[in-house]
Q: What sequence folds into this?
């Protein structure tokens, strides 16, 4: 399963690897920038009972800097098209 984002093909398998890598780097979800406590982070990917920051994960998978795209609908669309649950954190 795949979709495109800013001309880059995003595969479901790559997202799954990025989620695993996130788990390895941040055993506690909130270790990443204390993102769960900040109002600027509104959405989360829900997977395996954990929450993940969509914009961070999409940047990792696509190779596109987070400064070069917006979050919200644009980012969430990618994950929903790949079958992931995305909602308010």
A:
């Amino acid at each position: 399963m795949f979709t495109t984002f800013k001309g880059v093909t995003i595969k479901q398998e790559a997202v799954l690897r990025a989620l695993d890598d996130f788990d390895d780097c941040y055993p506690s979800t909130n270790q990443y920038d204390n993102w769960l406590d900040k109002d600027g982070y509104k959405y989360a990917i829900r997977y395996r009972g954990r929450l993940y920051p969509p914009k961070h994960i999409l940047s990792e998978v696509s190779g596109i800097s987070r400064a070069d795209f917006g979050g919200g609908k644009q980012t969430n669309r990618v994950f929903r098209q790949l079958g992931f649950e995305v909602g308010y954190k």
